[in-house]
Design a protein that fits this description.
Radius of gyration: 11 Å
Strand content: 15-25%
Helix content: 25-40%
Shape: globular
Structural class: alpha+beta
Order of helices and strands: HEEHEE
Number of helices: 2
Length: 71
């Protein structure tokens, strides 16, 4: 899994809120970073996948579509 710096986390949270009107939670653990949404949102998932693809990352969502990590 890949990590991003806090400035990029803030930029992501702002972009998703502006584009989709939802909040992205950020969880920073010693070995990884995990992002989560309060509930599945197809528009937000598509936006996040595109957002990170443009930066050379791949957002990998869980089966429920609420949590994701970066590759």
């Amino acid at each position: 899994m890949k990590s991003i710096d806090f400035d990029e986390v803030i930029a992501l949270k702002s972009a998703v809120n502006k584009e989709c009107g939802i909040y992205v939670h950020f969880h920073d653990y010693c070995s990884s970073q995990v992002f989560s949404l309060d509930e599945p949102n197809e528009k937000a998932q598509a936006f996040i996948e595109k957002y990170f693809a443009e930066k050379g990352f791949r957002a990998v969502f869980n089966d429920e579509g609420t949590d994701f990590m970066l590759e």
